[in-house]
Amino acid sequence: MTDNPDKLTERRRRSLGPAYRHFYSRPLYLTRGEGVWLFDNDGRKYLDCYNNVASVGHCHPHVVAALHRQASTLNTHTRYLHHAVVEYAEMLAATLPGDLSVCMFVCTGSEANDLAYQIARAVTGNDGAITTEGAYHGNSTLVAELSPDSGRSHPAPDFIVDVEAPYTYRGSFAADHPDVDTAYADLVDGAIATLRERGKAPAMMIIDNIFDAHGILTPGPAYHRSVYAKVRAAGGLIVADEVQSGLCRLGDHYWAFEDAGVIPDIVTMGKPLGDGHPLAVVATTPDIAAAFAKTQHYFNTFGGNPVSATVGKAVLEVVADEDILANVGETGRYLKAGLVELASRHELIGEVRGKGLFLGAELVTDRIDRTPAEDAVHRILERMREAGVLIASTGIHGNVLKFRPPMVFRQQHADLVLAALDEALAETV
Amino acid sequence: MTDNPDKLTERRRRSLGPAYRHFYSRPLYLTRGEGVWLFDNDGRKYLDCYNNVASVGHCHPHVVAALHRQASTLNTHTRYLHHAVVEYAEMLAATLPGDLSVCMFVCTGSEANDLAYQIARAVTGNDGAITTEGAYHGNSTLVAELSPDSGRSHPAPDFIVDVEAPYTYRGSFAADHPDVDTAYADLVDGAIATLRERGKAPAMMIIDNIFDAHGILTPGPAYHRSVYAKVRAAGGLIVADEVQSGLCRLGDHYWAFEDAGVIPDIVTMGKPLGDGHPLAVVATTPDIAAAFAKTQHYFNTFGGNPVSATVGKAVLEVVADEDILANVGETGRYLKAGLVELASRHELIGEVRGKGLFLGAELVTDRIDRTPAEDAVHRILERMREAGVLIASTGIHGNVLKFRPPMVFRQQHADLVLAALDEALAETV
To answer: How many degrees, rounded to 5, is the angle at CA A310 between CA A304 and CA A312?
Structure first.
């Protein structure tokens, strides 16, 4: 039952504790969602240009109907036979290239990345893990250690090594470096050498293909090809973390790694798969699955249950039926062009990055020193919220505006975002 | 769409891989559930005396309706304000004794136990963890290390120490030991000393209050009181893993630790909370939550979302409205008395254990040597399945029949189980 927002905020502080944070200085109390629209407790409408979990739109009727139908019929687990999980695995495998035909089911992206490490460790016999500085891959104890972005309240164990991300705007190599992709890829040699000095070898390197927490990066194909080759030569597997970048999000393929023409050994998928329902997947090859099964059985109580699998199927059906991939490509290009146009008029925007419907605008107080304009970001987020448009921020300095809407976002919605942002930027000089 | 079970099994083997296991030698293909009943692809009816996830019965209409209503309305996350998660946290807190008034939301019991360790480590400044030999607490990398039951494909790190569980039927101290509870509790001194030798101290000890994977144990209050005191004196917190034993399962209280009159520092809850929906919780005190928040923020994409929280509320409503606690107490006593009666006639049953609707019957080939009768267990599970009754096995030797039905199980259902088991035992001499 809706409550006064101030009272509810206070009740929340008591019952959820202070480790929880809100978006916005004045918490936004949302009570209804539909497509790309969210509504607050006063009935006020917001354009959602941020939430990727509601991948095919808030409360998509086809997904809700599937959820309701299966939840009314049966919900057990994978120790019984059921068609939904098999059908869903087959549908997912059909979207994946190469030999990636085996799916294992979990509930969250954190669980998927955690399981990926367990598989990589079992299959390679190594225990090292390479991750990128600034990455966020989830919140289990192990995965938080793979996530320098979380601030690592506890030091990373010696089997984890960080490598610089291909952040051309601020990193060791600028975009105009003649071999910028391979220059960044070559840094992985150092990480492998560090593991070797510790008597270790990589079980895996994990890569978020959109480098969300770093500030949204899209290195060229040469980066991925070179990194894949180096890690594999050292005995490790490649884990493509597609929790953020997957399921058509980047507009050209179902999975972001396809942009680089590479095929990882393990793919982890999460947030968007269930349009809000807790559903995540680890996909791999039959060989890797078989090698893992030699040492371990796998069971996850809720993972791949009939309801979750049915919801996952319904989302894939919507993605195909509504031609989501084409829309993401088109709308994404349109929105990015609009951001680039804004950058031509607003000095605050240092760089526009990203692809499909995962775009970033890095704000700087000046374009020469590139000083991060974190305060401006906060003011703009609040100003946009007042204007009825929800976006968020990301990046290692927290100074990148993030545009990552439900994938049913259209050009007319992009126009609303661009107009609101234009005004907010003008007011935030 | 239903398929030929053999074909479906083969498709499953290909698409889920060999790490997945089935119950039963011939996989059971379930297609519908209702209350305590499950139906297979041929329309055959099975009495479910095993599945605790469907805590208030398969497809409970009140829970399904709540799920459908909220999934049709809004599903976001805890960075926006929403009443459902606050109301659910308050309802859960009202079931908990003492100061356990703060709830943090995750999706699985594994995530709950993993977060509990992170909290304990942050709050105590220690990193040691004590667990019981034979325990199962989940499957994240860290929690698998806390779970000797999983066989630990990888050696446990040096901050984890196992301690013998209070297994009076086979352990170091028999039930007729004059101070059996404190004798087992005293073993924790050794675990603390081992940590100390390694330059460590306990952040926590984690206890599954029904010791499910050990074979279902219910040590007396003195065990818990003494263990709590020892761990706390060494600077650690007590984590009560109520994923199996919680939510009225043991028949006298909402939470199993209440049977011993103790109050843990952290309570983890999982499986039964959502009647099938992926929902899990970490409950703790305001002081511990505040100390944790000093070093860390917390966010879990799906944890505590409006749909999950609404489902959790609906389950608690059913638990109260249908007086589940009283039913579990009554039906549990009736079923246990029936098992004890069977033990008086069937030599195969070495010991009947457990409480409420979490009961075990340990099978032995002879009562003197207590040789585990694992083969007999398998034959009985298959025989019971043929008779239309689903139970399972547990225990460090896999020789304990496990009875853990949905909590809407009634005496007439218990009669069916006992009759089927009587026959199966007679045929399995």
So the answer is: 75
**Amino acid A3: pLDDT:** 81
Given a cut of 80, whether residue A150 has pLDDT beyond it is: no
Chain A environment of B293 (Cβ under 8 Å):
17-19
Q: Is B151's pLDDT higher than 70?
A: no
Q: What is the pLDDT of residues A391-412, one digit of tens each?
A: 999 999 999 999 999 999 999 9
In chain A, which residues have their Cβ closer than 8 Å to the Cβ of B12? 81, 85-86, 89
- CA-nearest residue to B41 within chain A is A82
Q: How far is A30 from chain B (nearest CA, A)?
A: 6
Q: CA of A35: which chain B residue's CA is closest?
A: B74
Q: What is the pLDDT of residues A221-245, one digit of tens each?
A: 999 999 999 999 999 999 999 999 9
Closest partner CB to B86 (pick from A11, A22, A85): A11
ipTM above 0.90, yes or no: yes
Q: DSSP for B18-73?
A: TT---STTTT-BEEEEEBTEEEETT--EEEESS-SSSTT-BT-HHHHHHHHHHHHH
Q: Say yes or no for a CB contact (<8 Å) between B80 and A30.
A: yes
* pLDDT tens column, B172-200: 999 999 999 999 999 999 999 999 999 99
Position A151 scores a pLDDT of 65
What topology is assigned to B61-321 in CATH? Answer: Aspartate Aminotransferase; domain 2 (3.40.640)
Nearest CA among A214, A187, A184 for reference residue A354:
A214
When CB atoms are compared, the residue of A17, A18, A75 closest to B276 is: A75
Cβ(B256)–Cβ(B246) below 8 Å:
yes
Q: Which residues of B fall within a CB distance of 8 Å from A11? A: 86, 90
With helix as H, strand as E and coil as C, how does chain A read?
Answer: CCCCHHHHHHHHHHHHCCCCCCCCCCCCEEEEEEECEEEECCCCEEEECCCCCCCCCECCHHHHHHHHHHHHHCCCCCCCECHHHHHHHHHHHHHCCCCCCEEEEECCHHHHHHHHHHHHHHHHCCCEEEEECCCCCCCCHHHHHCCHHHCCCCCCCCCEEEECCCCCCCCCCCCCCCCHHHHHHHHHHHHHHHHHHCCCCEEEEEEECCCCCCCCCCCCHHHHHHHHHHHHHCCCEEEEECCCCCCCCCCCCCCHHHHHCCCCCEEEECHHHHCCCCCEEEEECHHHHHHHHHHCCCCCCCCCCHHHHHHHHHHHHHHHHCCHHHHHHHHHHHHHHHHHHHHHHCCCEEEEEEECCEEEEEEECCCCCCCECHHHHHHHHHHHHHCCEECEEECCCCCEEEECCCCCCCHHHHHHHHHHHHHHHHCCC
pLDDT in tens, B42-96: 999 999 999 999 999 999 999 999 999 999 999 999 999 999 999 999 999 999 9
Greatest alpha-carbon pair distance for chain B in Å reads: 62
Query: Do A372 and A399 touch, CB atoms closer than 8 A?
Result: yes
Minimal C-alpha gap between A174 and chain B (Å): 33
pLDDT digits (tens, 9 = 90+) for B382-406: 999 999 999 999 999 999 999 999 9
Considering the four listed CATH numbers 3.90.1150.10, 3.40.190.10, 3.40.630.30, 3.80.10.10, the one that applies to the domain covering A5-56+323-426 is 3.90.1150.10
- Give the distance from residue B64's alpha carbon to the nearest chain A alpha carbon, in angstroms: 6
How many Å lie between the alpha carbon of B211 and the closest alpha carbon of chain A? 18
B363, burial (CB in 10 Å: exposed 0-12, middle 13-18, buried 19+): buried
Residue B429 has pLDDT above 90, yes or no: no
Question: B284 - beta bridge partners?
Answer: B102, B266
- For chain A, the domains span 5-56+323-426, 61-321
